[in-house]
Write a structure and sequence with these properties.
148 residues, mainly alpha, two-stranded antiparallel sheet, 2 strands
Length: 148
């Protein structure tokens, strides 16, 4: 153990490396671009115009909601998004059980500023004793190896 397997103490699972979680995030962003693209097509088709003014803010809120439904739904249903499943990663609570709806929502909402502020929430993992990202620390969640 290299001093960063703290999640194993709480959950019974081993902790993936930060590098592996970052690679999964890159893959997730590729999948997410497709989801956002098709959600945007639906919105623009319904709006019948390029959003500007107040409609632009509605469009942004709509995309935030669609992306949130994807993440929260995936995390609650099986503890994995498609990218996490591909990389054999799972999101669990402190006891290793499925996370609650509140934890999933909190993780999603906290991830935005953690990523947007220069990736501060990701860099935080280098200094966290359990190597958790800041949004995981705030939501009380762990990313663990799912074991295949």
């Amino acid at each position: 153990m290299r001093g960063h397997s703290g999640a194993a103490v709480h959950t019974g699972y081993s902790t993936p490396s930060i590098k592996r979680r970052l690679i999964c995030m890159v893959y997730e962003s590729l999948l997410l671009s497709g989801i956002a693209f098709f959600a945007g097509l639906l919105f623009l088709g319904a709006a019948g115009t390029n959003p500007s003014g107040w409609l632009r803010h509605v469009f942004q809120a709509y995309l935030f909601l669609v992306i949130g439904i994807y993440f929260v739904g995936s995390w609650r249903h099986r503890g994995q998004t498609l990218a996490m499943k591909t990389w054999n990663l799972r999101l669990v609570g402190a006891s290793g059980a499925r996370i609650t709806l509140l934890q999933a929502i909190l993780r999603y909402v906290c991830a935005w500023p953690c990523l947007a502020l220069g990736g501060f929430g990701i860099l935080y993992a280098r200094f966290d004793r359990e190597r958790r990202f800041l949004h995981d620390r705030l939501a009380g969640t762990f990313i663990v190896n799912s074991g295949g």
